[in-house]
Q: What sequence folds into this?
């Protein structure tokens, strides 16, 4: 089996104004859909970020993969490194962490190669990854403060404005009713810390049995974070990226008992070694989009087991190919002990056949394959590619978008 064609299709999906420390979501989010076709007629799928640096990397690498054997992941890596010799990162300068373009491009194509391998032997992708330790993957409800939408050009709003503790509790109630989530994560760093403390207390009161987390993305100084932790004694399952940078995380970690999780200070294996040495985090959030694919995410799980760290799963706005890949990786990561993040409830489009995947009691069944177990709906793909051409958004920049809602906004990390 050899690769004979590679197609990369950028798409746009209508989004709603979800707020975070650095700004607000744009009117659409961008994804890139990958199809890798073999001389035996199989098509392997992948999905990743669709913003300009990732897209350029994918497009430059695509023609160099012709002739590749999907079983040779070392050759895949070598071809990517030689097609992208200058490397670099993928994110806009206003983002809070960056990922190497080489890792992101590798990750996207690796999933497609593994999908092909599963398809060739008619086995689900989790079997290619060493087998499933679970078939039902629990996800948490990912709660955001949000503005009421101003620009309806590409799609409607969901829920209107949610900018108070009480409104966020109602958002959570709706998510739990609709999806059955058993845990809740709040994207913090948006309101004053006192209001976010009130939010978490009200969530605890309303949902006494749900695991609760907050992720302020480095919004707080160490003393502020310590005050929040003291005020939320007994409320949090874990605290995600409360302060900015490895050393601040280590300083806070030494002062508190609540576990610290991260998808900002540990995004490469080298960082994991530093974090373990400094005892800066207790949980690393894996993500097959940048942890060197599914195999890298599983290696991360093994490293965490050796270092006695927990493993969770981070998300960004994504569609069903990514969600299916997350499920297979989660199925094959024995020590993934926390509910995974997902942005999936925040939009209603899909580009896979059969439409949207359905959560039951907050969990998804792993698609049974072959490979990822999902197929492309080409009409839906064409529709979202058309929106990509019309929307003319080419990069993710939440700070730039925020200026449309708050013209005097200044990105400040930490803010409090
Ligand atoms: O969608 O605004 C967002 C999130 O802030 C996302 O970009 C983060 O990558 O969900 C992520 C996180 O956990 O930090
Ligand atoms: Mg995070």
A:
């Amino acid at each position: 089996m050899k690769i004979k064609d590679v197609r990369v299709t950028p798409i746009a999906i209508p989004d709603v104004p979800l707020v975070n420390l650095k700004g607000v979501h744009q009117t659409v989010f961008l994804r890139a859909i990958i199809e890798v076709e073999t001389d035996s007629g199989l098509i392997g799928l992948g999905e990743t970020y669709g913003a300009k640096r990732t897209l350029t990397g994918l497009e430059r690498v695509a023609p160099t993969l012709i002739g590749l054997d999907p079983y040779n992941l070392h050759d895949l890596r070598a071809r990517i490194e030689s097609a992208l010799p200058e490397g670099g990162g993928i994110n806009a300068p206003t983002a809070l962490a960056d990922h190497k373009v080489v890792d992101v491009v590798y990750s996207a194509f690796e999933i497609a190669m593994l999908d092909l391998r599963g398809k060739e032997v008619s086995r689900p992708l989790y079997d290619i990854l060493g087998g499933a330790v679970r078939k039902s993957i629990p996800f948490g409800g990912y709660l955001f403060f949000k503005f009421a939408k101003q620009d309806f050009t590409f799609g409607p709003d969901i829920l209107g404005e949610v900018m108070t503790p009480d409104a966020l509790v109602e958002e959570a109630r709706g998510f739990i009713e609709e999806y059955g989530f058993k845990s809740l994560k709040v994207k913090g760093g948006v309101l004053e810390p006192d209001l976010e403390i009130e939010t978490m207390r009200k969530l605890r009161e309303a949902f006494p049995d749900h695991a609760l987390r907050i992720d302020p993305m480095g919004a707080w100084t160490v003393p502020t974070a310590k005050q929040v932790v003291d005020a939320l004694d007994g409320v949090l399952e874990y605290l995600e990226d409360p302060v900015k940078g490895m050393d601040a995380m280590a300083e806070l970690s030494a002062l508190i008992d609540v576990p610290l999780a991260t998808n900002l200070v540990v995004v490469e294996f080298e960082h994991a070694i530093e974090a373990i040495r400094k005892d800066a985090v207790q949980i690393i959030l894996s993500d097959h989009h940048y942890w060197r694919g599914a195999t890298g995410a599983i290696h991360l799980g093994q490293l965490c087991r050796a270092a006695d760290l927990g493993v969770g799963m981070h998300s960004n706005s994504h569609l069903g190919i990514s969600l299916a890949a997350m499920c297979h990786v989660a199925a094959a990561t024995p020590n993934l002990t926390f509910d995974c993040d997902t942005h999936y409830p925040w939009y209603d489009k899909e580009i896979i056949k059969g439409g949207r995947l359905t959560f039951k009691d907050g969990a998804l069944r792993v698609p049974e394959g072959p490979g990822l177990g999902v197929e492309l709906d080409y009409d839906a793909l064409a529709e979202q590619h058309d929106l990509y051409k019309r929307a003319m958004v080419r990069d993710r920049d939440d700070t730039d978008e925020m200026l449309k809602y708050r013209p005097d906004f200044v990105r400040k990390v930490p803010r409090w």
Remarks:
- The pocket of magnesium ion (ligand 2) is lined by residues 215, 217, 240-241, 263, 314 (CB under 6 Å).
- The radius of gyration is 20 Å.
- The CA atoms of residues 282 and 309 lie 5 Å apart.
- The mean pLDDT is 97.
